[in-house]
Specification:
Length: about 220
């Protein structure tokens, strides 16, 4: 390792986040920051990439990166195989946390709350706009299960392609969307000397309470 981990750091000096820049509810600020990320972050960074954390039946946390596919006043939507590891974990403990990090903007957003499945109609509507290869893959892959090797996956893919040779693949019953219903959203703006700005929104009796957290 050419450089000590203890010496790896950068100063955050790009921007700040004050209370007069923040609305009373968090969704408008999230959309503003997300739009900034779309304009600023350069490929291969995906602005809608997030880390999703779930907990299994034994209370052990699990994290992975996936893509946000919808946001409105109800919450934040993503899609996956319901029989995957994360799907099984959410079935037992329907709570999750997601984190967005936009390094070019020196910003981070943390979201926590309960998770519910979206309606079958919402899942099907999104499934139909996915590329054909992704739709085929949703049917072919037994997500999170142990397989013999890449060859087995290729065999499953070939079988699925033949199955849908003359008909468009519809949304599988084991695949669909989840919506995280936020109870807490924290906006983090990097600042000099690690004295970062942290504005936290908490949902209390159906109203958002905004507060500043020490860095």
């Amino acid at each position: 390792m050419s450089k000590s981990l203890a010496d790896m750091r950068r100063e955050y000096t790009r921007d700040g986040l004050s209370e007069n820049q923040a609305p009373d509810e968090p969704f408008a600020l999230f959309r503003r920051w997300f739009d900034d990320a779309v304009k600023t972050e350069q490929l291969p960074v995906e602005p809608n990439a997030m880390t999703l954390a779930t907990v299994d039946a034994e209370g052990r946390p699990h994290c992975r990166v996936l893509l946000l596919k919808g946001v409105d006043e109800r919450g934040f939507t993503f899609f996956t195989n319901y029989e995957s590891a994360k799907g099984q974990q959410l079935a037992v403990r329907p709570f999750a946390a997601m984190t967005f990090f936009w390094p070019a903007l020196e910003r981070q957003v943390r979201i926590e709350g309960r998770v519910e499945r979206v309606t079958p109609e919402e899942s099907d509507a999104y499934f139909q706009v996915r590329p054909l290869g992704s739709r085929i893959g949703a049917w072919a892959s037994p997500q999170s299960r142990v397989i013999r090797g890449r060859g087995e996956l290729e065999e499953l893919l070939d079988e699925t392609r033949r199955r849908f040779l003359d008909v468009a693949p519809h949304c599988p019953p084991h695949w669909g969307g989840y919506r995280l219903l936020p109870e807490r959203i924290e906006f983090w703006q990097g600042r000099e000397s690690r004295l970062h700005d942290r504005l936290n929104y908490r949902l209390v009796d159906d109203a958002w309470v905004r507060e500043r957290l020490a860095p």
